[in-house]
Amino acid sequence: MTTAHAPTTATAPVQQRAAAIEAVLEERGFKAAAAIEQGIHMAEEVWLPQRGARVVAKAWVDDAFRQRLLNNGRDAVAELGIELPRHHRHLVALENTATVHNVICCTLCSCTAFTVIGLPPDWYKDLDYRARVVRESRTVLREMGLHLPPDMHVRVWDTTADTRYMVLPHRPAHTAGWGEEQLAAIVTKDAMIGVARLEPPYSPAA
Ligand code: FE
Asked: Is 106 annotated as catalytic?
């Protein structure tokens, strides 16, 4: 059986709609083009996962910083010059251990602590990931290449508009004695989302 729909007006292509919105904003004195340029600049050159990697590396070598990060992520990353938008009221760092694994998602849309760990990958915004990671996290992680043993506790965290998360990965044992820069180089966005781990046997020893 088919459902009757009221006839709809044809929708203009997305580029045309975007241009129309931009024109209206400009007409009313909003600098839309400049804001778009600025957004692209921030996304491509500032909001990079290397920032979060610096946070992780520092937490690995500086126990007092690690404690501050776990207590109040927002204040701790500010020590490294990393700002969050005002509406990201809380940054919660989730510490992975040898027996606990944290993974983040946004079941509603695509929220991340993007100024710290970078913009969300496409798969993070995918309805499949968002719906399934909360119900069958082990299976989803396995499909993404992360095979966790049955005795590993998995915790899934659903981001909200004002509470953002980052995973503090478990430091690989073979990195003992490494400097912060060398440590930061092995930290990935996937590890800070929690779909990867950095230590063997999950990742090869670097
Ligand atoms: Fe979201």
From this structure: yes
